[in-house]
Design a protein that fits this description.
Elements: H1 29-43, H2 54-67, H3 88-108, E1 113-119, E2 124-129, H4 131-139, H5 150-153, H6 157-161, E3 168-171, E4 183-191, E5 198-207, H7 215-249, E6 255-260, E7 265-268, H8 270-275, H9 301-311, E8 320-324, E9 333-342, E10 345-353, E11 359-360, H10 367-371, E12 378-382, E13 385-389, E14 394-400, E15 403-408, E16 411-415, H11 420-427, E17 432-436, E18 439-442, E19 446-451, E20 457-461, E21 468-471, H12 476-483
Parallel strand pairs: 8-11
Antiparallel strand pairs: 1-2, 1-5, 3-4, 4-5, 6-7, 6-10, 8-9, 9-10, 12-13, 12-16, 14-15, 14-18, 15-16, 17-18, 19-20, 20-21
Helix pairs in contact: 3-7
């Protein structure tokens, strides 16, 4: 792990004896009352329009309607055990986060804070910090061998951070369970940069006291430091997959594609790039940066990728094929997949378009869990409703400070995820790219490119109003490269 993590101090710097750590209400009194009223209405089964942040409202919906969490819970349930075995890479992450947790625990001990680290299922692996605060936390089972996933314990710093990208805060009555309304929490997840799946979470909590603004930047920097390890591993995996791609390309049989574990394309020959609609922004052989990878817009392909990775345990020579409609409106074509394996397991897949070899895939073969997976959705908020959008519906996104507006055929919809950087991370694999400090654009929805009087570029979308989105000088070279101009 490289990089320097700044010191974490919950109390403000003291210039004299008069300045003490803030111990006032969790949030402004009027705001806390408004959130509490909204929570009471929502927990009673009513809908709410105002008084709660969009990301918190989205979490409440999950807790009430998807997970059925008892809002009167005041003790987290036990962690239980899982049948799945973690990757060795995850152990490296847990070790790094444990070191950061211990370091932060020492620094915030005098301020009554508790630092916890949990795995991808919300199971607490370690807790550090003030001893009296830890004893109070243990009364709620905020301690090792307990589960703080949203599915078990409702809206909270650790569990909610595993559901969304970027740092999250859950303060007072924003917690779904009433028994945790006296706590203020901030959490962030470490994610696999290849699949986007959460690996672990680190969380800072205080009882009956607020968390100062510096906590979120500290968590963000801490996780960025840990994710450097994952990025190095991802680059190594890409090198292994590209080497396998080049070896198989020497004996061609069908258009060939190399994909990572998440189904994003790392490399493709010209024929495959055309077949999968990757022309104009086709990946270059040897490109290892995860930001440069593309997710093919082929319905059903993510499920086939998951199936192939699961079935790859059948042996080193396993391969399988599926029939998918690669081009909209055209007949299905066969795709054959071979796993690429190193000492840690599957690191990627090779895919031949137009070839049918090995085990045949059928939609039920991905397992019960995969059969319940819906296509990727982006959560927006309009009035009292959550709006579920597919990435292809979004023409562009515009930032208004930390609020992000998604422009779609259904109008301007506020993103439940705050911060343009966070939205960009979630949507980049779907061809939605940063073109300006305030704008993201869906490159597949660009119909025209205009030049301004001073040479500036505007991307005109294919919507009925033909919006023109400005391109900054910094991003203009990348836009020209992607469109081949």
């Amino acid at each position: 792990m490289t990089g320097r993590i700044p010191p974490l101090v919950l109390a403000p710097e003291r210039s004299g004896s008069r300045n003490v750590a803030p111990r006032g209400p969790l949030v402004a009194a009027s705001s806390a009352r408004e959130v509490a009223r909204a929570w009471e209405d929502f927990a009673a089964g009513n809908e709410v329009r105002t008084g709660v942040r969009p990301e918190i409202l989205a979490s409440w919906y999950r807790c009430r309607d998807r997970y059925g969490v008892d809002s009167t819970l005041d003790v987290a349930p036990g962690a239980g055990s899982g049948a799945e075995s973690p990757r060795v890479d995850d152990g490296v992450v847990f070790t790094a986060l444990g070191g950061l947790g211990a370091m932060a625990g020492r620094e915030i001990e005098r301020d009554g804070g508790v630092v916890t680290v949990a795995d991808s299922r919300g199971r607490v692996l370690g807790a550090w910090g003030d001893s009296s605060a830890r004893r109070r936390a243990e009364l709620h089972n905020l301690a090792p061998w307990s589960s703080w996933s949203e599915a078990c314990t409702g809206t909270n710093g650790m569990g909610t951070s595993l559901e969304v990208d970027g740092p999250v805060t859950v303060t007072g009555p924003e917690h779904w369970c009433q028994g945790f309304h006296d706590w203020a929490c901030a959490g962030i997840s470490v994610r696999d940069v290849v699949t986007g799946a959460p690996v672990a979470s680190i969380n800072i909590s205080r009882w009956n006291a607020s968390l100062p603004p510096l906590v979120l930047p500290w968590l963000t920097e801490a996780v960025a430091c840990v994710e450097q390890v994952i990025r190095r591993r991802a680059a190594y995996e890409a090198d292994v997959v590209v080497a396998a791609f080049e070896a198989r390309a020497a004996r061609p049989r069908g258009a060939l594609v190399a994909m990572d574990r998440g189904g994003s394309v790392i490399a493709a020959d010209d024929e495959a790039a055309v077949a999968l609609g990757l022309t104009g922004a086709a990946p270059v052989v040897g490109t290892c940066a995860t930001a440069a990878r593309r997710v093919p817009d082929v319905p059903g392909l993510p499920e086939v990728v998951r199936w192939a990775i699961e079935r790859s345990g059948c042996g080193p020579d396993w391969c399988g094929h599926a029939r998918l409609a690669v081009c909209p409106g055209e007949a299905e074509v066969p795709l054959t997949l071979w796993p690429v394996v190193d000492g840690q397991g599957v690191v990627g897949l090779l895919c031949a378009v137009g070839v049918a070899d090995g085990e045949a895939y059928s939609p039920g073969d991905a397992g019960d869990q995969a059969s319940d997976v819906l296509p990727r959705r982006v959560i927006g908020v309009r009035d009292d409703r959550l709006v579920l959008l597919t990435p292809s519906e979004i023409r562009y996104a515009e930032a208004d400070r930390n609020t992000v507006w998604l422009v779609t055929e259904r109008g301007r919809i506020q993103s439940a995820t705050r911060g343009l950087d966070n939205v960009e991370r979630a949507l980049a694999p779907f061809g939605i790219r940063r073109v300006h400090r305030r704008y993201l654009v869906n490159l597949r929805r660009v119909a025209e490119i205009e030049r301004g009087p001073r040479g500036e570029l505007f991307l005109v979308t294919d919507g009925r109003s033909h919006e023109g989105v400005p391109v900054s000088r910094r991003h203009a070279p990348d836009v020209r490269r992607r469109f081949g101009i």
